[in-house]
Amino acid sequence: MPVRTAKQMKPTLKVTKSRTPNQSTSGVLRVNQSATNTRSVNSSVHRKSFTLAGDSKVLDKGSVQTHKQTVQVFDETGKDVTPQPLYQPEAGALQPKQSKIFTNHDTSGSTLSDFLSTAYQTTNASFAAPFTRSVFGSSSVSRSSQSTMESMNDEIEDPSSKKDISLSLSDVQVRREEIKEQIKEHMLDCMVDCYLTETETIWLLDMPALSVSMDSEEAEVVKGRNMAYQELCKNRLGNDKYMERPMQTFNGAPKAKEVQSDSISMVEKATMATHWDIYDSYVSDGGAGNAADGASPTKLDISTLHRVHSSRPLDRTMSGASAISTASTSSSRIDTEAFVVQGENESDPEDVLHSEKFLQDLLVMERAVLENIYQPKLAAYRQLPILPDPNREQKAGDERDGQDDVSLNPALERLWAFNCELTMGRNVSNMAWNKKNPDLLAVGYGQFDFKDQKSGLVCCWSLKNPTWPERIFHCESGVTALDFSTCSPSQLAVGMHDGSIAIYNVQSTEKTPVIDSSDCAHKHTGPVWQVRWVENEHGPGGEDKRETLISVSADGRISKWFLRKGLDGIDLMKLKRMRSVRKHLGVKERKIEALISRHASGLCFHFHNNDSNIYLVGTEDGLIHKCSCSYNEQFLGTYTAHIGPVYKITWSPLCPDVFLSCSADWTIQLWRQDLFTPILGFTSTHKAVHDIEWSPRWATVFGAVNEGRLEIWDLGSSILDPIIVSMARPGVKLTSLLFATQTDCVLVGDSGGQVSVYKLKNLNAGEGKEVNTLHDIIRSTLASQL
Amino acid sequence: MLEETLKRIQAHKGVIGTIVVNAEGIPIRTTLDSSTTVQYAGLLHQLTMKARSTVRDIDPQNDLTFLRIRSKKHEIMVAPDKEYLLIVIQNPSE
User: Which residue has the higher pLDDT, A211 or A257?
Assistant: First the structure.
């Protein structure tokens, strides 16, 4: 559209007040803008506009112009200030808005300013016309991106307008656009129609053709001219009009000039982009960055590269990878560098020692070291073949001889002992395996006698470390009973000499029990001799497989404990002294007038394996009572044979009706549930038998510990003598016994604080037939008795 | 707790030396002489990096947790971490 120029200077140019432009400026401002600082624009704007104002001649004063009749401009008050085609006398009204426009107008940022600043530098500042051209050229760049700028584009690309557009025009045009934009900002969500129009053709270069077609109109003219020229050339030779004249140009003498620059130092830089390096940077970027986007397809490529070029040396694929993902490697490197810097800021390099991970690593390391030491023993325990150490010198004959000796006889091989300085001198009172982790053993240390009571100790040992326990719990009084729970395998119930029961959680490293029964009203008043977690199939609420903690104590009560707010117990049974039974034994009844207590002390109990209602209790009087949970007043039956306190009763795990009992009267008795007299009795020495246990694997094998020795009995081989006997170390008494469940090993605790592990070797009891064997024995014995 | 464990490890049968080095190669705890410590730390650091690189190249989500080198005379056990290196040298067949 034609641009009309006004001859007068536009008063709008004088307006230089502008707010601080943030990132957007109009075309005018951009001209003055330095490359980075937008705030300097203000002053330069002032300057510029002043110079422009001063240069009235050069400036083409703009006339207001409209391009499209549809364009309507409103100011804030809603007044229609659509510029009219002619020069407006209300220029004063337009001026203040103009400044605002300048500030708010957002054009594309730095590119425009850069372009304009270079334009500024290259062109004369005072020369406005080329300025304006460049201004408009650049503004076209910016505004073409905006939808409403097409009007301006039309303007700008018009070649005629390039010369004549004045600043004032630009002012006005800018303002118009700006107002439009202000409106737009309010309605950002509405649909904007973009009209794309083709601009007029811009001629950049015009090289007219030298040849003319024969058919064209000019052909005749051209031909004529050609002919005339040829004649001229012919006439040239002798003609006076043409003279030959030579000329010579002087060639300047060349001069060599040398330039020396600083040598460019080359530094070699190499990086190894490994598969995991790329993976790390990808992960650390969060998967959302350019590097990550670049890395993810390349990661796949690299993996395929790996597979394809697996035979080729790694370097080639690495270099290929590095070429692709230099960005990611550099970023990872920056990450590591930043991390190292952080590390240096920490004052103490020893902080590293106190981290969790370090403790964990120490634990693993200790186990690894111990594994090297104990490897043959642990292999024997786990029934793995013991491989000879290839580096050890072969002491020929020694080892082989050892093997031959024990090839046939059943024997015990001592593997190792759980012992540490904490436990030295303490009496092992009880041991229990963890139900879930068969490598975890809990050992309770406490004196049996009331005389020398020390504080108690519970240690949880792991097979992987026989030199130091995994958990150590100090208790106030001696520990006399222990059991691990089945339902929650990390709970350990501990019964103590002062009658209190505590439950520890072995998973945590806390030293205090989870719960304690010391506050309970019903707590035991005598030492708790046994605790056991019993699974009930008929739970109170009808739930199955609930567990209850049951304990027996020297105060004659068998209590069942619940976890309510504290540990609370109710009595299942009170053990009454039964005087009448003594008559049955034929012992003269002494007149007992004053009883110390009406209750007999209970020393042990065992619930039936299959029926959780029935259990047996052994008392200090030597009586074994069969009781039921349903009756808490009366016994179902009494087994009398022992004349000393019954230390242990145990049902056979493989034969459901048979149980063993051992007592301080040097005997072990074998009973069947329905007979109230023992079937078989075993005596070997004149020492109290402290502990017995059935072997979990063979039905005819059981182990017994009396004070001086460990005995393994196999009823299938002999019912008179134990088949294996192992003497205790001098000075200690053996106090407790435990069979290992998975392997054929036996653990023996003694009064010196050691728990020794023995392996049973060459036990000839075959599998599967012992139950029958046992029944046969029983039957034959009974038959012989009758 | 920490010191006891370190002492215990050192006291086990056959253990020749225990070294703890931090990420920069500075020995924090050692029971061997200085030159041996520095030698072990430097060499094992490189080997650990290589081992870790190998493990992670095969599967980047995997990582190296423990390294044991058994030689004719001893066994060197290394527990590596980003911040430290725990080295124990043991003669297992003593």
Answer: A257
What is the rounded distance in angstroms from the CA atom of residue A137 to the CA atom of residue A521? 97
User: Does the ipTM surpass 0.90?
Assistant: no
The span from the CA of A411 to the CA of A405, in Å, is: 10
Angle at A320 between CA A315 and CA A321, to 5 degrees: 95
Mean pLDDT to the nearest integer, A55-78? 54
CB nearest to A391's CB, from B1, B8, B72: B72
- Please report residues of B whose CB lies closer than 8 A to that of A274: 53, 56-57
Looking at the DSSP bridge assignments, the partners of residue A637 are A626
b (16+ CB within 10 A) / e for A318-335: bebbbebbeebbebbeee
Please give, rounded to a whole number of angstroms, the shortest distance from the CA of A480 to a CA of chain B: 28
Q: Which amino acid is at A411?
A: A
Report the half-sphere exposure of B63 (CA within 13 A, side-chain side): 9
Model pLDDT for residues A639-670, shown as the tens digit of each residue: 888 888 888 888 888 888 888 888 888 888 88
Out of A352, A364, A365, the one facing B22 most closely (by C-beta) is A352
Q: Which of A628, A622, A666 is nearest to A644 (CA)?
A: A622
CB contact under 8 A, A352 and B28: yes
Planar angle of CA A568, A569, A573, nearest 5 degrees: 175
Task: Note the pTM of the prediction, 2 decimals.
Answer: 0.59
**Residue A331 CB contacts under 8 Å (≥ 6 apart), including other chains:** A281, A285, A291
* Separation of alpha carbons A475 and A479, rounded Å: 7
Provide the CA A478 distance to its chain's centre, in angstroms. 42
d(CA A399, CA A388): 10
